[in-house]
Specification:
Layout (H helix, E strand, L loop, with lengths): L1 H55 L1 H6 L8 H14 L3 E8 L4 E8 L2 E4 L12 H6 L8 E2 L3 E2 L1 E2 L2 E2 L5 E9 L8 E8 L1 H8 L7 E5 L5 E3 L8 H4 L6 H4 L1 H9 L2 E7 L2 E9 L11 E8 L1 H50 L4 H68 L3 H40 L4 E4 H11 L1 H7 L1 E6 L5 E4 L1 H19 L6 E9 L4 E8 L29 H12 L3 E5 L6 E8 L6
Helix pairs in contact: 1-9, 10-11, 11-12, 11-14, 12-14, 14-15
Length: 609
Amino acid sequence: MLLLIAFVSAFTVNYLLRQSYIHDINEKHDHIIASASVHLSRELGDVRNIVSLLYHDRDIHQGLSAEGPINTAILAQRFSGFAQSLDNVLQIRWLDIQGNERVRIDVDKDSVRQLPDSELQNKASRYYFRDAMQVEPPSVYFSGLDLNVENGAIVQPYQPTLRAGIRTGVDDGKQPGLLLINYDFRRLLESLRNLSEKQSALLIADAGGYWVLHPQAEQEWGHDLGQNKYNLSVQNQALWKRLRKISVISGEVLAGQLISAMKINLGQSTSQESATPVYLIVQTTAEFMSAVNWRSIWPGLLLAAVIILVGGRLLHHDLLQQYQRYLLNRQLQQEKEALEVTNAKLDISLYEQSILQDELVETRKLSALGMMVAGVAHELNTPVGGALMLTSTLETHLTQLTKAVDTGLSRQALADYILHSQEGLKLLDENLKRAKIRVESFKRLAIDRASDDIVEFRLRQVCDDLLRSLQVMLTHSGVKVVTHIAEDLRLVGYPGIVSQILQNLIVNAVVHGFADMTGGQIELCAETNEQDQVILRVSDNGSGVRSDIAGRMFDPFVTSARGQGSSGLGLHLVHQWVTRLLHGSIRAEEPAEGGLSFLIVFPRHISAD
């Protein structure tokens, strides 16, 4: 029994400690993956917005007008202007349908250069040109992440590049071809590399399993460098098979390593063809997991040793005392033979008392068991009794209905049977609706973002769906969002656009308003006025906005965090959506108590005209 207690105690301590260590590691994994996902999503959103701005630019439209030959001077001037205003852009170019570069601007550090005609190349054989020409506009094509190649050779030093483009000449009055930018991902990859911790490394694999980010830099870009052994499918086949089947892995032990992973599409758009997957992987090495196992085992072993030592000491002491009592009783029996009869009677009395005590113990056990059974019966009585009653009732009504069918079914008998069946089935329906509410919440969010139709919707529901999708980011940043919107406030318009506007403002507040703060609060308030307009206010108690950009925060490329990778397009796009799609207005206010507040006013009913 002592050994059993020691073993169970050691096993329990080992299990609890190991689960605690793994839980802490999983939290680090989730934090790293969530941070990497936010970085990637923000960067890809900026790239998509840049391509869209180029596509809709009037000067570029004039330069590519289908009514005449392309005006390379206008295109070069406009491309250069964009390149000087943007960070991380390597190239901006336009290719005709044969894959010939007609206008190209290269960016090298702070210099912008237009390539002469003699240096322009034909890219018809490159995969990104073929794939991009299959994507119907206005969807933006995103290539995979690979190394930049010029004239058939990899550029040195390596330039990790993402290519984003959009076709021209499809019902837009432009020359047919491809508007394409090469986006430099070196700074982003370095930021993602810095997310790795000592024992939790962030890795990124492309759609083919080749490493884009790896703790050992020599294993990166195996596809471009012809190093097929540096591939996830070769190094960890079990993990590769799991990632091909599911999109998210949380804290699974594969090949001795603790793995968390997430699949992300580089092109998140309504066009499935423009989506290229990458895999975010956070792994804790087998060596560290072995150390975790050892740190979990030795306290249990120590506890077992203490239990055995202390218990053994107590057992030894007890046995010694029993032996001494035996010797004393033997001595007394030898010295007092006259008391044998009395001792015999005393033994009989002690034996009877022992039997009585055993019976009392059994009685108490049965009493405790009865109380436990009564408690369990009480807990199960209602659901089991209700289920039995419902089964019996439905069986009775079914029997009656069967008899009625044989003797002549009346309308009343059928109606009674249907009514009782509906009441029984209603109990099952209530439990299913809870799961349905959450599923429909994320389903609505996805459908609203993908649809351009004008529909009727509840503003509070759109806000709730959005906040659920941003919960990981808000929890990590410690920001609390408080909503003051009536449940019955209904609008007719674009729920996806309203959701995107709120998301940009909330993310902007978290990234800029609370960048140097811990915690904070964002308030969403909405009401209607006498002109049947919606007055939507998004306020935060963050650090506010710098005075030098306060008057032009809605201009494109204006940002206070360009060094951290911000493009300055978030608020500009919010202004465009509010004024052009919602036919409303937006202005920023700086409350006396600090922070920043955005006041948005737009019609409650938006017509298709």
